[in-house]
Amino acid sequence: MMKVVLVDDEPPGRLALRQQLSRLPDAEIVAECSDGASAIDAIVQHAPDVLFLDVQLGGVSGLDVLERVGADAVPAIVFVTAYDRYAVRAFEAHAVDYLLKPIDPDRFREAWCRAAERVERDRDEPDTRLTALVAGDSPQPLQRFVVRGGGKLVFVPVETVEWIEAAGNYVRLHQGGKEHLVRRTLSGLAERLGSRFVRIHRTALVNARAIGALELYGKGSYVVHLRDGTRLVSSRYAGRSLRALLES
User: Fold this and answer.
1) pTM above 0.85, yes or no
2) What letter does residue 25 receive in the DSSP assignment?
């Protein structure tokens, strides 16, 4: 069985999804939400396998929900929208698919198959927890980033960055409420940053000093509370690295 959370601010939208899911023997709806705040709570509480998420929720968008909890909070995300112009942003947020309203049953089954494949791949993924780099052949530790801002090249000290998010061929630095886009790969940065940053899932590195609290979340995972109020959800494979922080 795969646990499912439905998020749509309109009852007919939730009903349409519920009807399609009722035909599937391996789907269990654990929560239905009509707004962003309740969606965040449901994701944290239930640790769903699949999330059907309406893009437009009124006030807080579906994309905002993912930004609050982290794109890896759920193995498989399917966006639901009345406008196909959101498709590109959906895939940038690591969605497995998106559905246009009104929902076509064949497209729904296709999206469900993609979601199921993603969930299975996530369950079978080998342990990718971050370990400290061995001294010797390691590259020189990175001390600062160089970003463009206001026509200038600005230096951003590594220690001031709270967390780093993968964005295609770029990474997005989150620093004191600001965001900077840098052309680097997350894996390459992990090597240069060493044990100062913990890779909590495949798309995010977190500054260990920026972590204020860890909250158990599902089997082996944590909600990572940063000191600036950001909440991110780790993969189950990062649990050992995060628990090591408690002992350091």
Assistant:
1) no
2) T
